[in-house]
Amino acid sequence: MTTILVTGGTGTLGRLVTERLRTDGHEVRVLSRHSRTYPVDLREGTGLAEAVAGVDTIVHCATTPRGGDELAARHLVEAAGPAGVRHLVYISIVGVDQVPLGYYQSKLAVEKLIEESGLGWSVLRTTQFHDLVLQLLQGSAKLPVMLLPAGVAVQPIEVAEVAARLAELATGAPAGRVLDLGGPEVRSFPELARAYLRASGRRRTLLNVRLAGKAYRGFRAGGHLTPQRALGEVTFEQFLAGSLPARG
């Protein structure tokens, strides 16, 4: 079996990718700032040479909307080349080339950096995770009135399904930009908010708010959706049933 390094291996997605690969018998190195074995800060780049030595494949899950993804990816690529890494797998987001959001633009820049790295590579774009949508709704529900972006739909997907696809790519040959992976349904924010309120037993008034800016227009236009690739199976309601405390 191959040695696979997972960046961000203690995060929501990276942890599941790591578990899946280890279950399949692969040796997996977990790279994160808090890892006991490979404590690497990708933005600093220190310790990377030791972490990637002898690694066949890297699954790059580490990311942050606070900035620094491009620098982290550059350090990773610079270490991977001399180490003889065969395959670099990157998780991106549907719509990074359609929605002019700062975080999306950073993800797109990382895609291009990887494509031009000289390494074998695979890039998978997916829609938003159920977990992210739940966090947004929980934050909005802290107020008596839930403020929702008017005219915006999302296509949430189960993170375990994304992890399974990444593990599949990591154990295969470099495939370039693979087909996008979307959740099973395109849903409006009011629909998702009502589902959350039912599951959590809360009562809130919903208020659609029209926002300004190019990014919001991109979301309204559906640039972050891929209805033709609705291959996920777990619905938002099924996710909520397994994520929220049981109601008495």
TrEMBL record:
SUPFAM superfamilies: NAD(P)-binding Rossmann-fold domains (SSF51735). InterPro entries: Ergot_Alk_Oxidoreductase (IPR051604), NAD(P)-bd_dom (IPR016040), NAD(P)-bd_dom_sf (IPR036291), SDR_fam (IPR002347). It comes from the Bacteria. Residues 8-131 form the NAD(P)-binding domain. PANTHER family: PRESTALK A DIFFERENTIATION PROTEIN A, PTHR43162. This is Nucleotide-diphosphate-sugar epimerase. The lineage of its organism: Bacteria, Bacillati, Actinomycetota, Actinomycetes, Kitasatosporales.
